Amino acid sequence: MKIIQEYKPINEQEVIDKKAILQFLSRNSDAFLRDNLVAHFTSSAIVLDKTFTKVLFIHHNLYNSWGWVGGHNDGDKDFLHVAIKEAKEETGVVNIVPFIDEPIGIDSIYVPNHIKKGKWVPDHLHMNLTFLLIADTSDTLHIKEDENSGVKWFEIEEALSIITEPRMLPIYKKLFNKAKNIKKD
Hints:
CATH architecture: Alpha-Beta Complex
Number of strands: 10
Shape: globular
Structural class: alpha+beta
Helix content: 25-40%
Largest sheet: 8 strands, mixed
CATH topology: Nucleoside Triphosphate Pyrophosphohydrolase
Radius of gyration: 16 Å
CATH superfamily: Nucleoside Triphosphate Pyrophosphohydrolase
Number of domains: 1
Mean pLDDT: 96
CATH class: Alpha Beta
Strand content: 25-35%
Low-confidence stretches: none
């Protein structure tokens, strides 16, 4: 898949995850469906304001932590489309656009087993591409109660201190740093 093949990893973790994701894709015709109980594709977004000083986070019900927006591709191979759709659905923000059309991160993310909508979901991996989106801070925010219990703009420096998923901290730090470097260019 071109978007993954053309992605330029920024560190060893991304080199290895990109290789694993491409290998997984080549061996699994159902990689875009959550019917694949081992792993499947997801699209996420770091949503910033136009000044690149604030990030829009949701409080995830499943993980009991503040974090990015995103979701399952569910058959949609347009990662950016999924990231924008999920950002709008999970936050209520209407005025949201990509800063660039390419992903800013690639990650294979472990998801522990859980119950979702009354059904058991086993441990699995999210093969994830992350995009950088820009949103209007004056848009009205709405909670999507089946997925989150909060939607809020945070100063980027503050955002890292409110994340309670230690495994996600290196990913967010990497993405915030990459966003800062993209803005400089």
